[in-house]
Specification:
Main location: cytoplasm
Protein name: Carboxymethylenebutenolidase homolog
Radius of gyration: 17 Å
Pfam families: DLH (PF01738)
GO cellular component, one term: cytosol
Number of helices: 7
Subcellular location: Cytoplasm, Cytosol
CATH superfamily: Alpha/Beta hydrolase fold, catalytic domain
């Protein structure tokens, strides 16, 4: 039974009733969801899922949104067959679960996906986006991989970030003002070592030589770009749409 007094750091939000327009494929040792535009495209985006895994309908919805804007979108299973986190899981087990799912240990999978996109899909310009766990993974990729042109980190959990800020490529960081898990300034009621958004900005300012942007969306909570339904949260709709538009515009600029 889940420990409701101390829930998982990412509640499921609004789980979309969405089947997706793409298909599941096997890419060497990993499975992936792939969606391609009707016309020819040499632009692709790797979508890195959150702790709820590559099959979450919300994440596939975001992949399909990218395809609607002309991108080949692929959402691989970066847990490589291991179970995604479930809302019913006990929070007390989360840290142990996380130890075997390190967001900075995805280099092999990224290389496999890049090869697939280039050789099987004809992609020449490739970016990456990620959500929560995947947002932290985007930060890692932007530090390590010279072949991915740009990244968008959606509320990447900052405590997962490795100690590196000299990004290789332009990166856009999306955060929510009311995110209980990623403090803007003071890490109250959280681990004292939690890195704050303001400190992230300062570290980037001091160390990053490429274009980056950190944007905070008023009144929003963790997961708002992909785990909130705008039709049942009318007060949030403008910010949900703004976050998605900003993400697309960033990709359009650098891919």
């Amino acid at each position: 039974m889940a420990n409701e007094a101390k829930p998982c750091p990412c509640n499921i939000g609004d789980r979309f009733d969405y089947e997706g327009c793409g298909q599941e494929v096997q890419v060497e040792h990993i499975k992936a969801y792939v969606c391609k535009p009707s016309g020819k495209s040499d632009k692709a985006v790797i979508v890195i899922h959150d702790i709820f895994g590559w099959q979450l309908p919300n994440t596939r919805y975001m992949a399909d949104l990218l395809t609607a804007h002309g991108y080949i979108a692929i959402c691989p299973d970066f847990y490589v067959g291991q179970e995604a986190w479930k809302p019913s899981n006990d929070w007390a087990s989360f840290n142990n679960w996380l130890k075997t799912r390190d967001s900075s240990k995805i280099d092999r999978e990224i290389d496999v996906v890049l090869k697939y996109l280039q050789e099987q899909c004809g992609a020449k310009r490739i970016g990456v986006i990620g959500f929560c766990w995947g947002g932290a993974a985007v930060h890692h990729v932007m530090l390590k991989n010279p072949h991915i042109k740009t990244g968008v980190s959606n509320y990447g959990v900052i405590r997962f970030f490795e100690n590196g800020y000299n990004l290789l490529h332009p990166t856009f960081f999306i955060f929510a003002e009311k995110d209980e898990h990623i403090p803007l300034e003071q890490a109250t009621m959280m681990e004292h070592s939690v890195l704050q958004v303001t400190q992230l900005e300062q570290n980037l300012k001091e160390n990053c030589k490429v274009h980056y942007e950190v944007k905070i969306y008023p009144g929003q909570t963790h997961g708002f770009v992909h785990r909130k339904r705008e039709d049942i949260n009318p007060q949030d709709k403008p910010y949900i749409e703004e976050g998605r538009k900003d993400m697309i515009n960033w990709l359009n600029k650098y891919i």
